[in-house]
Amino acid sequence: MDLALWIAAVFLALVFGAGGAAKVVVPKEKIAAFKFAGWVEDWSAASVRIIGGLEVLAAVGLVLPPLVGIGTVFAPLAAVGIILVMVGAIAVHARRREPLNIAGNLVYLAVAAFVAWGRFGPESFMG
Question: Is 2 helix (H, G, I), strand (E, B) or coil?
Fold first, then answer.
């Protein structure tokens, strides 16, 4: 179970680290040009950067604290943060009637829920 949780956490860290970093450094107009990123048109450039920054923080929080053995409670909290971001993303994509984006968000939400459950529960780093 621990290995599966690590694989899920690293997967989420890679996806949200890369995606979040892109939202922080790539101009909003360039992001909007991607096929599944039309949602950025509904948000200010600052909001897109904030979302990206939260995604980067979650990515770091999923793997760094357990690797260094300090603040390990942040790993499941980061997974909860991803769940919250995905709930918001699902709401945005539902309003925009984008079922493919919703499906992707549900996958990320499920993986993050698995990590949160596992790291708060049976495979906790905290004891």
Answer: helix
